[in-house]
Write a structure and sequence with these properties.
Length: about 675
C-alpha cells in the first residue's frame, strides 16, 4: 500500500475542515442557556469550604438521627476505638491475637534493643519503648494490623540530629534528656495535627520522596552497622557515605575476625529466613522468629566460649524493671531547646507518615477503613505519654506490622499481648541479655532495613513519571551523600517546585473537532481524528486560574492567536472559545484575565466566548462583568459543540448579509451608470 503524498494529505485536511464547517452550519442543535448558580451567602460558602478542608470524612454523620444514649456510646467509641470491638470480642479472636502478639514480640524485643543503639540511646530504652506505647495504641488506634514500637528511620534521624550538638558518649544524660524532649515535641505536633484535622500537611511527602528517602536511609543505616559487624571501636559520627567508608578503611587495624565471622554467619541466616518468608508468606514465623533465635544462639555462644574476652563486644548488664518515670528529664529551657524542637518536628512528621502509610496499606488489604486523624491523635498521645515514661519516638513498624498481619491478627489486642511479653522480659529476663553481642544487633538492623529499598517501586515510577523519578533520585543521593535531613529537605523542595510549576504554568491545549460529531478533543492527542474548525480557535484551560498564572495564560492565548494569523493580512480567527470545564476555582486576579483578553482580541476583530464556567467561576464572572458584553447569551455557552454550531450559523448569516449588501450596492451602481450616459448625450 502506497503512502499518500503531502499534497494529498493537505487536500484531505482541507476537505475535512470544509466538511466540518458545513456540518456545524447544517446541524440543528438546541442551545442551552448558561445560568448562574443558586445564591449562597458568604457564611454558607465558608462553611462548605471549611467542611471539605477539615472534615472531608464527615465524622458527625454517624450521630444524625440517633438517641442521646446512642450518641454518647458512638462518641466514646469514636474517641476510644477499643470500645467498638471490645464488647463483641470472642475467644476465637483471642487465640489469633495471642499467636500474632507473641510472634511480633519475638521480633520487637531484639529490634527494640537494636534500634535504641541506632539512636545512640541505652538499649534498655528500646524495650521501654516497646512496652508503654503499644498499650496506648491498642486503646486509641483504629488499625487492626499496626504493630507499634521503635523504627529504624526515626531512630537514625533522632540519633544523627541530636549528635550534631551533643555527644552521646561524653554527655549521655543530656543526650537522653534531649531524646525524651524531642519525643514530647513530636507527640505534641502529631496530636495537634490530628485534633486540628491538618493531616493533609503530611501529604507533601510524596510517594517518590518517601521511596527515595527510605532507600537512602536504609543504605546509611546499613553502613553504620559496619561498626558492629567489623568490631570497630573508633567510628565516625557522620551519616554520609564518604565519611563512613573512609572511617571503615581508616580503622582497618581494629577489624576483628571473630566479630566478622559471627556477623557474616548470622547475617546470612537472617537474610535467608527473610527470603523464605517472602517466597512463602505462610512461613512468616521463620523471619519473625529468626532475630530472637539469633540473639539467643549468639548469646549462648559468647557465654560458652567467653568470646567477650576475645574481641567480641557485648551489650553488658541491663537494668531490670519496668519503665521509670522521665517527666523530670524533659528540657523546656536551655541552649539545646531549639535542637529538641527541630528534631521533634522532623522525626514526628517522618514517623507519622510511615505509621499512617503502613496502617492504610494493611487496611486496604483487609478492606476496612483507617481514620487518619484518629491515627495522628493516637500516635501523638502515645509519644507524649511515652516521653514521660522513658520511651523515645515510636510509630507503626512495617516489618512488625507485616508479621502481625501474616500471623493472623484480628484486633489491636495483639499489641497488648506484645506489651505483656516485653513486660515479662523487663521484669525477669534482662540478665540473659548481658552477653548478647553487639554484632548480632547490627545484623538484625541490616536485615530489617533491607526491606526499605523498594527497587520495583522505583522502576515503576521511572516508567510512569520521569520527574517523580528525579525527586526519588535526589532524595536517595541527598541522604547518602549529604545527610538524612538535607536529603529529605531537597526532595521536598523539588516536590514543592513541581507543584509550583503546575500552578504557575497550567496545562492549556487547542481543541479540534472529531468529524461528524460535536465532540472536541486535544489536537495534539488525537492528531489523526480531529480537525480545526475555520474561524474558530478553541482553547481548553485545565487548571484553576489565579494570580500566579494569569499573566502566563494571557500571553499564551494571544500567542496562539498570532500563530493562527501568521503570514495573513486579515485575521482568519473570528472567535476565540475558551472551554472552562476544568477550571474549578478562580480568584480576583484571574477574573481580570478575561476582561484584559477580550480588549486585546477586540482590537484584532475577534470575539471572546466562554464555555461552561463552573458555579464559583460563573458567580464571580457575573459579579465582575454584570451587564457587559462578556455576559450576554452569545458569549456564554454550555458546551463547545453548542458554541461552534450557534456561532457558525451567525458567521453564515453575517457572510450572507455582507454578500447581499455588496450585490445591492453593485446593482445600484449599474442602475446609476445609464443615467449618467443619458445626461452626457443630452449635453
Amino acid at each position: 500500500m502506497e503512502t499518500p503524498t503531502n499534497e494529498n494529505n493537505n487536500n484531505n485536511g482541507a476537505n475535512s475542515t470544509s466538511h466540518n464547517m458545513h456540518h456545524f452550519m447544517e446541524m440543528g442543535m438546541d442551545v442551552h442557556k448558561v445560568v448562574p448558580p443558586p445564591y449562597r451567602s458568604t457564611f454558607q460558602k465558608l462553611k462548605t469550604k471549611l467542611k471539605e478542608t477539615f472534615f472531608p470524612d464527615d465524622p458527625l454523620h454517624q450521630f444524625k438521627g440517633q438517641t442521646s444514649k446512642k450518641k454518647w456510646i458512638l462518641g466514646a467509641q469514636y474517641v476510644f476505638p477499643i470500645l467498638e470491638w471490645g464488647p463483641t470480642y470472642s475467644f476465637k479472636l483471642f487465640k489469633s491475637d495471642i499467636v500474632s502478639g507473641l510472634t511480633i514480640a519475638s521480633l520487637a524485643i531484639p529490634q527494640g534493643i537494636s534500634y535504641a543503639k541506632l539512636a545512640n540511646l541505652p538499649p534498655i530504652v528500646g524495650l521501654y519503648s516497646s512496652f508503654v506505647p503499644p498499650l496506648l495504641y491498642a486503646v486509641l488506634g483504629s488499625s487492626r494490623d499496626l504493630a507499634v514500637g521503635p523504627v529504624s528511620i526515626a531512630s537514625l534521624i533522632m540519633g544523627s540530629m541530636l549528635m550534631q550538638e551533643v555527644s552521646p558518649s561524653n554527655e549521655p544524660v543530656l543526650f537522653l534528656q534531649l531524646a525524651f524532649t524531642s519525643t514530647f515535641f513530636a507527640g505534641i505536633l502529631q496530636a495537634s495535627l490530628g485534633f486540628l484535622r491538618l493531616g493533609f500537611i503530611i501529604d507533601f511527602l510524596s510517594k517518590a520522596t518517601l521511596i527515595g528517602f527510605m532507600a537512602g536511609a536504609a543504605v546509611i543505616v546499613s553502613l553504620q552497622q559496619l561498626k558492629s559487624l567489623l568490631g570497630i571501636k573508633n567510628f565516625t559520627k557522620k551519616m554520609a557515605l564518604i565519611p563512613v567508608l573512609t572511617s571503615v578503611f581508616k580503622e582497618r587495624k581494629e577489624w576483628s575476625w571473630q566479630t566478622i565471622l559471627m556477623g557474616c554467619c548470622f547475617l546470612v541466616l537472617l537474610l535467608l529466613s527473610r527470603h523464605i518468608s517472602m517466597k512463602k508468606p505462610k512461613l512468616f514465623w521463620v523471619s519473625a522468629g529468626a532475630p530472637l533465635v539469633s540473639v539467643i544462639l549468639s548469646t549462648l555462644i559468647v557465654f560458652a566460649v567467653k568470646a567477650n574476652k576475645h574481641g567480641i563486644s557485648v551489650i553488658g548488664e541491663l537494668q531490670k524493671g519496668l519503665n521509670p518515670p522521665s517527666w523530670n528529664m524533659l528540657q523546656f529551657k536551655g541552649t539545646h531547646l531549639g535542637l529538641a524542637i527541630k528534631t521533634g518536628i522532623t522525626t514526628g512528621i517522618i514517623s507519622l507518615t510511615e505509621g499512617i502509610a503502613v496502617g492504610r496499606t494493611f487496611a486496604a488489604i483487609k478492606d476496612y477503613r483507617v481514620d487518619g486523624n484518629k491515627e495522628m491523635i493516637a500516635i501523638g498521645i502515645m509519644n507524649i505519654v511515652g516521653s514521660t515514661t522513658s520511651c523515645y519516638i515510636t510509630t507503626g513498624s512495617f516489618s512488625r506490622s507485616a508479621v502481625n498481619h501474616n500471623a493472623g491478627a484480628k484486633t489491636a489486642l495483639s499489641n497488648i499481648v506484645m506489651s505483656v511479653a516485653v513486660m515479662v522480659t523487663l521484669l525477669f529476663l534482662m540478665p540473659l541479655f548481658q552477653y548478647t553481642p553487639n554484632v548480632i544487633l547490627g545484623a538484625i538492623i541490616v536485615t530489617a532495613v533491607v526491606g526499605l529499598i523498594d527497587v520495583p517501586a522505583a522502576y515503576h515510577i521511572w516508567k510512569v513519571d520521569k520527574y517523580d523519578f528525579l525527586v526519588l533520585v535526589c532524595a536517595f543521593f541527598g541522604v547518602i551523600f549529604i545527610s538524612v535531613q538535607e536529603g529529605l529537605a531537597i526532595a521536598v523542595g523539588i516536590s514543592v517546585f513541581k507543584i509550583m510549576l503546575q500552578v504557575t504554568r497550567p496545562r492549556t491545549v487547542v481543541l479540534g473537532n472529531i468529524p461528524g460529531t460535536d465532540i472536541f478533543r486535544d489536537l495534539q492527542h488525537y492528531k489523526e481524528s480531529t480537525a480545526t474548525v475555520p474561524g474558530f480557535l478553541i482553547i481548553s484551560i485545565e487548571a484553576a486560574i489565579n494570580f500566579a498564572n494569569t499573566t502566563y495564560l494571557n500571553e499564551r492565548i494571544l500567542r496562539w492567536v498570532e500563530e493562527e494569523d501568521e503570514g495573513k493580512k486579515l485575521s482568519s480567527v473570528q472567535y476565540v472559545i475558551i472551554d472552562m470545564t476544568a477550571v474549578s476555582t478562580i480568584d480576583t486576579t484571574g477574573i481580570t484575565l478575561f476582561g484584559d483578553l477580550r480588549k486585546s482580541l477586540l482590537k484584532r476583530g475577534i470575539e471572546l466566548v466562554l464555555v461552561n464556567p463552573l458555579s464559583e467561576v460563573m458567580e464571580k464572572l457575573q459579579k465582575a462583568y454584570a451587564g457587559e458584553e462578556m455576559m450576554k447569551p452569545d458569549a456564554l455557552y454550555l458546551t463547545v459543540g453548542e458554541a461552534v454550531a450557534s456561532l457558525s450559523i451567525s458567521m453564515k448569516n453575517q457572510a450572507s448579509n455582507i454578500y447581499n449588501e455588496g450585490w445591492q450596492k453593485q446593482k445600484q451602481q449599474q442602475q446609476e451608470k445609464p443615467n449618467v450616459n443619458e445626461s452626457s448625450q443630452s449635453e
